[in-house]
């Protein structure tokens, strides 16, 4: 298949007004795994797909990607340590939101798909976008909101794409990490598919909707985000500790890293 589309698609001269087939979209994104193109002087390594139109996804600045990494780490740690066994994905993980009956591929910065959905996926759903559409229940976008139109773009994306009645998404966070202010916004889907948007202070945030937790026990820790954005000297001078005992077995360790690795591998993530 790729040999055919290699002749038809000129990656250096993509026409964003053109309607592309889904096979062409798949071919283009596959090629961008090993190369980068520029559109309007922005480096592009991924496209989303909207009813035949290619939507460029520019590479993000270093600071934003550091925060994405910290949040996905928190989510995966919760997923492992509570034996949820769901799926945590980042911005290379796309979903077909099937908007208006049309195949619509979106790739949130961070998302969580529960175990009950993951277990039902077949090979087409796991390895292609050709199977029956499915969506996560929770997702996060990270941004530096500079003007009102930036916020409105995210508001439209959450309300009219991610939280549509036919999707499984129940909760969305927008993490605004601007250097002069930091805020968290959330969009929550209530009964009868009513979507409400909230603005939160910069503090730890749970996933409750009407006193029910979308992710039971998960708390977004903003202190880890703050640390990711600090530019600090490495501190490698701390000495090993003596006999850190595992509370689950008789194993002992001389540093926190080895203890945590043991605890996760042996006890938390079975």
Automatic annotation (TrEMBL):
This is C2H2-type domain-containing protein. It comes from the Eukaryota. Signal peptide: none annotated. Residues 244-270 form the C2H2-type domain. One of its GO terms (molecular function) is zinc ion binding. Keywords: Metal-binding, Zinc, Zinc-finger. One of its GO terms (biological process) is double-strand break repair. The keyword Zinc applies.
């Amino acid at each position: 298949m790729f040999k055919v589309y290699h002749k038809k698609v000129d990656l250096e001269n993509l026409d964003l007004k053109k309607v592309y087939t889904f096979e062409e979209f798949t071919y283009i994104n596959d090629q961008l795994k090993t190369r980068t193109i520029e559109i309007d002087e922005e480096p592009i390594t991924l496209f989303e797909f909207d009813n035949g139109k290619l939507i460029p996804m520019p590479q993000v600045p270093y600071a934003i990607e550091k925060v994405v990494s910290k949040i996905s780490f928190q989510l995966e740690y919760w997923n492992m340590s509570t034996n949820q066994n769901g799926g945590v994905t980042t911005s290379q993980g796309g979903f077909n939101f099937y908007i208006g009956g049309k195949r619509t591929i979106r790739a949130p910065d961070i998302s969580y798909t529960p175990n009950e959905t993951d277990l039902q996926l077949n090979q087409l759903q796991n390895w292609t976008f050709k199977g029956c559409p499915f969506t996560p229940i929770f997702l996060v976008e990270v941004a530096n909101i500079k003007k009102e139109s930036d916020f409105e773009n995210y508001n439209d994306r959450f309300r009219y794409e991610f939280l549509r009645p036919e999707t499984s998404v129940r909760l969305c966070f927008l993490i605004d990490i601007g250097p002069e202010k930091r805020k968290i916004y959330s969009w929550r889907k209530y009964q009868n598919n009513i979507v409400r948007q909230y603005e939160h202070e910069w503090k730890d945030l749970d996933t409750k909707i009407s006193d029910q937790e979308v992710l039971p026990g998960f708390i977004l820790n903003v202190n880890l985000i703050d640390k990711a954005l600090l530019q600090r000297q490495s501190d490698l001078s701390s000495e090993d500790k003596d006999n850190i005992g595992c509370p689950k077995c008789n194993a002992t360790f001389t540093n926190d890293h080895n203890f945590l690795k043991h605890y996760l591998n042996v006890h938390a993530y079975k």
